[in-house]
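Tokens in:
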């Protein structure tokens, strides 16, 4: 494969396109669309979002230290894009996009977006001023999940939600499932093993025929001698 050398840039795609809801301590809330987000730790559960200091939501985030990462779907594609190109200084994004601010279970100020399938409630632990963006490291305090995406055993089936991804300026949906975690190292029957196993089961209990008996088998002639 022929390669070109480009200048340093962010080409780590695809990424989740999420709507982040936040509010200051006075109750003023807003929604900001973010793609610079991801998991940073499993235990304790932590994630991050990176936001430009000039964004309207930046001061709200710093004031309360709370935000909610709301996963987006194909049905929410317009709201996802619109909330990323309009400023909360000029418009009420909740009203314009007909989104519902719901109560977070563990936060005091930041609301959830009711229309999103998953709401990840976070409290900021550290702000790292990196450059064009400041990274808000946060601890996950709670996760709210839409019951419609749970199967009969209570397992989350996010593949049915039609989640959005962001890749180099484009919004995309996820494709078909190619496997589950760990499938590449699971033991599978060797070629032909299944048929051998079936034959063994079929012949189970039968008395094996010796080579001697096999040679002596044959049709008898009228004189009683065996015909070879």
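Residues out:
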């Amino acid at each position: 494969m022929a390669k070109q050398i480009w200048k340093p840039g962010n080409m780590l795609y695809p990424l989740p396109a999420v709507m982040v809801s936040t509010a200051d301590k006075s109750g003023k809330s807003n929604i900001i669309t973010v793609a610079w987000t991801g998991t940073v730790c499993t235990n304790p559960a932590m994630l991050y979002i990176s936001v430009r200091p000039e964004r309207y939501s930046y001061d709200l985030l710093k004031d309360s230290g709370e935000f909610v990462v709301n996963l987006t779907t194909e049905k929410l594609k317009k709201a996802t894009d619109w909330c990323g190109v309009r400023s909360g200084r000029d418009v009420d994004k909740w009203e314009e996009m007909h989104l519902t601010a719901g109560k977070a279970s563990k936060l005091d100020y930041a609301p959830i977006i009711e229309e999103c399938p998953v709401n990840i409630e976070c409290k900021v632990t550290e702000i790292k001023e990196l450059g064009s963006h400041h990274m808000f490291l946060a601890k996950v305090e709670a996760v709210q999940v839409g019951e419609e995406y749970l199967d009969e055993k209570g397992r989350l089936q996010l593949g049915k939600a039609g989640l959005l991804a962001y890749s180099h300026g484009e919004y995309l949906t996820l494709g078909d499932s190619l496997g589950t975690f760990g499938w590449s190292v699971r033991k599978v029957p060797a070629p032909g093993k299944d048929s051998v196993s079936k034959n063994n089961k079929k012949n189970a209990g039968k008395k094996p025929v010796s080579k001697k008996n096999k040679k002596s088998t044959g049709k008898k002639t009228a004189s009683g001698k065996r015909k070879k």
